[in-house]
Write a structure and sequence with these properties.
With 635 residues, this protein is mostly helical. Among the domains are: 64 residues, Serine Threonine Protein Phosphatase 5, Tetratricopeptide repeat, CATH 1.25.40; 127 residues, no CATH class. Helices cover 62% and strands 4% of the residues. The chain has 33 helices and six strands. A hairpin with a 2-residue loop joins strand 1 and strand 2. The longest helix has 17 residues. The N terminus is likely disordered.
């Protein structure tokens, strides 16, 4: 039917106009009315516009259905509209039925599926996708029931003759992988070797990675006829998930060498691996790859870069990335606040937290871990107590163990040990042994032997297999020169089959990671390293350095204690740094344990006598040493 519409006013003439022709293609109409990625409100507005123009016919309704956003939230609030569109349509084609399945939230597609008048193989694909997405969103919500329903859909697909369709098989492989049923996943994959594409292979890879069997994933990966960027990023992520960080970085580097374009997932995952290892050169390489490929600094990439540079000892580079980010989300802010705190820049972290709040962001529990840690590292007792109260009183965040850990550490380091104990005893949750270990460290620092012995024995009862508690208690006795008690603790430790964790230090040089143990003689350059260490020791002795052997837990002569200390792993790493790191560049070291007091003094003296910068990441923080001073302020 033809009809006329009045001419639009001048200001509205840029809006799309249509001829009143019922045969006008619905896709063309919607293409003019809808943005590329419409929200529900856009579809509703387009429907209203078509109704005003008299074009909201039953033939158009299925195309409106197709334009709806996938997996609308809230079954009660959002499902009535697509259902009304479908019911008012005179199109009972599989096209309309499939799009109804696609947009309805779980579990409506399953209940409606038997009553749909038309189906095709894509119907099963959309139905399985609905189940998989539900499990992805909440793996604990009736996963066994969802697995049963998925198996039922699989049986229906076989009965309908649709199970040989490539897209249905890909959906089945993905579904069983999400369920964690790798046996069923592999059976579907192996049934029809000729009905596969790269999506099928990638689904199997992802299923094995999700199940924590990265070895099987690697076997599949190595056998793939064609690999794309998703294949590579999945394997990188699998190795990171299993803690094989150096292997993950090796896979990423191999991907780049083979000319495969890294996607955002691979970059973010590789940055995480470099961050956990503290390897700046590796992290820089990943960053350079992203820049070379013109990858935009999205919120995810930016947060990963900030985290990597912070954990690799280059907090200035982290701040540079953070300040240049076009859009910063809560994760980026938290990474920067926590990074500043770990580097001892407590006041900067507090100021950034205040800026974060002033820009309208709502702090999370991680935000408060960062700002409380900043206060702890910098001795900001009043500020720490204030933020601890603010967290619950203003933002309704109940303190978790990490928050209590920060505030107990803050009070213990400030000598307020009794206040820290009262806080622990008044906690609403059961304190973990780490908090009492923090108290024991404070007792050692301030010479509170009797209290420390009580706490130490309590810790050993709580965690008899934890070596650190025995070492701290023995160290407390050693400080008081109670050698008989030291021997008792060591015998108790031995009788329970507990041994002290071996300390190691990592240093990266020219793309190669070098690992040193105490007294290590296995390095290929051991002779040069020990000669260099001897030269450093002589120069420091001339400058007045006297070893502090109080950390040695053996009743032996001072000369033997000096020898035991001077071959600690970080000293070997420093000596090797003198050999391979050019003057003017900092020597960067990553340790698994805290730096002992004498090695800390030794390292500071090295920076003063030799005018070198040393950056050490130990088990709890960063130490930036330069000109005889450390960023931790010996706190």
């Amino acid at each position: 039917m033809q009809f006329e519409t009045p001419a639009p006013p001048p200001a509205a003439r840029r809006a799309p106009t249509f001829q009143a022709n019922p045969a006008t293609d619905a896709r063309q109409l919607l293409g003019a009315l809808l943005p590329p990625r419409p929200a529900l409100c856009h579809v509703l507005q387009a429907h209203a516009r078509l109704a005003v123009l008299g074009l909201a016919t039953a033939r158009v309704l299925p195309h409106l259905l197709a334009a709806l956003p996938r997996f609308l939230p809230g079954a009660a609030s959002c499902s009535s509209y697509p259902l009304s569109l479908y019911r008012r349509s005179d199109d009972s084609s599989a096209f309309a039925s499939n799009h109804l399945i696609r947009v309805l939230p779980h579990p409506l597609p399953l209940s409606l599926f038997p009553r749909l008048p038309r189906r095709n193989p894509h119907s099963f694909t959309f139905l399985l996708a609905s189940l998989s997405n539900h499990l992805d969103a909440d793996p604990t919500d009736g996963s066994s029931a969802s697995r049963f329903l998925g198996s039922h859909v699989h049986a229906l697909a076989v009965k309908a003759g649709a199970a040989d369709d490539l897209y249905v098989r890909n959906a089945l492989v993905h579904f069983y992988g999400v369920c964690g049923d790798v046996g069923a996943m592999r059976r579907v994959f192996d049934e029809l070797p000729r009905v596969r594409d790269v999506v099928t292979w990638n689904a199997v890879l992802a299923g094995y990675v999700r199940a924590g069997t990265v070895g099987h994933a690697r076997e599949v990966f190595d056998g793939m006829p064609v690999k794309d960027e998703v294949s590579w990023s999945t394997v990188v992520g699998g190795y990171v998930k299993e803690g094989e960080l150096e292997v993950a970085l090796g896979v990423f580097r191999n991907m780049v060498v083979q000319g495969v374009r890294a996607n955002e997932a691979a970059v973010v995952t590789a940055l995480s691996a470099a961050a956990q290892l503290g390897l700046l050169e590796q992290g820089r390489f990943v960053h350079e790859v992203a820049q070379r490929e013109g990858m935009p600094v999205s919120a995810n990439v930016g947060a990963a870069l900030v985290d990597m540079y912070s954990k690799c000892g280059s907090v200035a580079a982290a701040r540079e990335v953070f300040d240049a980010m076009p859009r910063r989300d809560v994760f980026a802010w938290n990474s920067m606040i926590c990074g500043l705190a770990a580097h001892g820049l407590g006041q900067d972290a507090v100021e950034l937290f205040e800026q974060f709040v002033s820009e309208g962001f709502c702090p999370t529990n991680v935000s408060f871990v960062g700002v409380l840690n900043a206060c702890s590292r910098s001795g900001l007792v009043d500020e720490g107590r204030w933020y601890f109260r603010l967290m619950a009183e203003k933002y309704g965040i109940e303190p978790e163990m990490e928050h209590y850990g920060c505030i107990v550490d803050l009070l213990g380091r400030a000598g307020l040990v009794q206040d820290a104990i009262e806080l622990i005893e008044g906690m609403r949750i059961t304190p973990d042994p780490v908090l009492w270990g923090t108290i024991l460290s404070a007792c050692k620092r301030y010479g509170l032997v009797d209290l420390g012995v009580t706490v130490g024995n309590k810790l050993i009862e709580l965690e008899p297999a934890h070596d650190g508690h025995y070492v701290l208690l023995a160290s407390l006795y050693a400080t008081a020169k109670k050698w008989d008690e030291v021997r008792k603790v060591r015998r108790l430790m031995s009788s329970r089959g507990t041994s002290k964790s071996a300390g190691w230090s990592l240093m990266e040089a020219h793309g190669i990671v070098h690992k040193f143990l105490v007294g290590d003689m296995d390095h290929k350059d051991s002779v040069r390293i020990y000669n260099m260490l001897g030269m450093i020791g002589r120069r420091l002795a001339e400058a007045g350095y006297v070893p502090d052997v109080s950390s040695v837990l053996h009743d032996i002569g001072d000369e033997e204690k000096v020898h035991a200390i001077k071959v600690h792993s970080e000293r070997l790493a420093i000596a090797y740094g003198f050999i391979v790191v050019e003057a003017g560049s900092p020597i960067r070291i990553v340790k698994n344990l805290s730096v002992c007091g004498d090695c800390h003094e030794f390292s500071k003296m090295v920076t003063k006598v030799f005018d070198r910068e040393i950056i050490v990441r130990d088990g709890s923080r960063f130490h930036h040493m330069k000109e005889g001073k450390c960023s931790c302020l010996d706190y």
